[in-house]
Design a protein that fits this description.
Blueprint lengths: L2 E5 L8 E8 L15 H4 L3 E2 L4 H16 L7 H11 L4 E2 H24 L5 H8 L2 H14 L9 H27 L10 H5 L4 E3 L2 E3 L1 E3 L4 E7 L3 E6 L5 E5 L2 H13 L6 E3 L11 E7 L20 E6 L3 H9 L5 E7 L1 E4 L2
Parallel strand pairs: 1-10, 2-11, 5-9
Antiparallel strand pairs: 1-15, 2-14, 3-4, 6-14, 7-8, 8-13, 9-10, 12-13
Helix pairs in contact: 2-3, 2-5, 2-6, 4-5, 4-6
Length: 340
C-alpha cells in the first residue's frame, strides 16, 4: 500500500488552500444537523421504544464513568446517556447520530471487550450511547423511515484489522516487559491505546452541522492522520494524510493569504457562492472541552474546525437545507512526501 503525507511550505506563495467546496459525500459520518430557536417544533416524530438493553447500557456507562471521575465521553455523549437512561424521547436526527457514533466506535468497544478492559473510555463511551442493542435498534428505525445503508468499505475493514493486530502485539509486549522487570503493568504507557484511532480512512471532505436561523455551517475542515483515498494517473489507488503540524500550517496560511470567501459547490471552480465567507476557524486542542462539542461533534485533537456564513438564501435552501451537500472539502496545492 502506498501512503503519502501531504504538507505545505509556507514560504511558497502558491502552496496552501485555494478554496473550500461544499460537497454531497463527506468522508466521515458526521451528521447534518439543524440548530435554530424553533428546533423543538421541527421534529414531527420522536422515539421512546429503544430496547431495554440500550437503557441498561446507558445506566452502566454512567455508573462506570462516575467511578472514573467522568473522564470518558464528550458532553454530547453524557447527555445522550441521560436521555436513554431516563427514557426520554429522541428525534430521528438523534437516532442518526447514535448510529453514526456506534458504527465509528465499534472497533474500540470490541477491543476493550477482547482485553476485558472495562474501564477503557472506548468501552464506556459506547455504553453511554446505548451499546450494541442501540445500534441494531437505530438501524431498524432508520430503515423504517426509508433510509438505506451501503456495504462497509472492505479496505477500511482490512486496515482496521491490521491496526487491531498491531495493538494486540504491543499489548503482549507490554505484559512481557512488566513480567521481565517485575513492574506494575498499569503503570506502563498504554501505547496500544495511543495507536487506536491514529489512522482512519477517509475521502477528502468532512461533515458539518447547520445553524439554520443564522445560515451558518460548522464542521471539521481537516482531521489529522486520516487516510484519504486517491487515484494516480494510472488509476491505481493510494492514500494520503495530513499530520497535526501540517494542518496547523495550512489553516494559518489560509488566514494569512486571506482565502476567506472562496466557496464553491462540488469543486466547480466556475461557480463560487456570492456572500459566503469564513467567520470562525480554530484548531482543537482539548477534545473534551472544545466548542465543537456544542454542535454535536466529537473532535480529535488537532482537528481544524471552520464555520462559514452562507448569505445566499437560494444556495442555503437548494443545497444545504435540502441535504444535497453535507460537508467541506479543501482544495489546494500540497507537497507529497512518500511515507510507505
Amino acid at each position: 500500500m502506498r501512503i503519502v503525507k501531504l504538507d505545505i511550505n509556507p514560504e511558497i506563495d502558491l502552496a496552501g488552500v485555494d478554496a473550500v467546496a461544499l460537497v454531497e459525500k463527506p468522508a466521515i459520518e458526521e451528521d447534518f444537523m439543524f440548530f435554530s430557536k424553533y428546533e423543538e417544533d421541527e421534529f414531527a416524530e420522536t422515539y421512546t421504544d429503544y430496547p431495554k438493553g440500550a437503557v441498561e447500557a446507558a445506566k452502566m456507562g454512567i455508573k462506570r464513568n462516575e467511578e472514573l471521575g467522568n473522564k470518558c465521553g464528550t458532553q454530547v455523549g453524557k447527555v445522550r446517556a441521560q436521555q436513554l437512561a431516563q427514557g426520554k424521547p429522541i428525534s430521528l436526527d438523534t437516532v442518526r447520530r447514535m448510529r453514526a457514533f456506534l458504527i465509528r466506535q465499534k472497533g474500540n468497544y470490541d477491543l476493550a471487550i477482547e482485553r476485558k478492559d472495562y474501564e477503557a473510555c472506548g468501552y464506556i463511551s459506547y455504553l453511554l450511547w446505548g451499546g450494541p442493542s442501540a445500534l441494531s435498534w437505530a438501524e431498524k428505525v432508520l430503515r423504517a423511515s426509508g433510509e438505506t445503508f451501503g456495504e462497509e468499505d472492505p479496505t477500511k475493514t482490512i486496515i482496521e484489522g491490521i491496526v487491531k493486530l498491531e495493538m494486540s502485539k504491543i499489548q503482549d509486549l507490554k505484559k512481557m516487559v512488566a513480567e521481565a522487570f517485575e513492574l506494575d503493568i498499569a503503570g506502563l504507557p498504554d501505547y496500544a491505546n495511543e495507536l487506536s484511532g491514529s489512522i482512519e480512512i477517509s475521502e477528502a471532505s468532512y461533515g458539518f452541522a447547520a445553524i439554520e436561523d443564522k445560515q451558518m455551517v460548522v464542521g471539521p475542515a481537516m482531521i489529522p492522520n486520516k487516510l484519504i483515498l486517491r487515484k494516480d494517473e494510472n488509476d491505481s489507488e493510494y492514500y494520503v494524510y495530513f499530520t497535526e503540524d501540517s494542518i496547523r500550517k495550512i489553516a494559518y496560511k489560509m488566514m494569512a493569504d486571506k482565502v476567506l470567501d472562496k466557496v464553491n459547490i462540488e469543486h466547480d471552480g466556475n461557480r463560487f457562492i456570492d456572500g459566503a465567507h469564513l467567520v470562525e476557524s480554530w484548531i482543537v486542542e482539548d477534545p473534551e472541552k472544545d466548542k465543537a462539542n456544542l454542535y454535536g461533534f466529537s473532535p480529535k485533537k488537532g482537528t481544524w474546525m471552520t464555520m462559514y456564513k452562507i448569505n445566499d438564501k437560494d444556495i442555503w435552501t437548494e443545497y444545504i437545507k435540502s441535504g444535497k451537500v453535507k460537508g467541506f472539502s479543501i482544495e489546494g496545492f500540497f507537497e507529497e512526501q512518500l511515507v510507505k
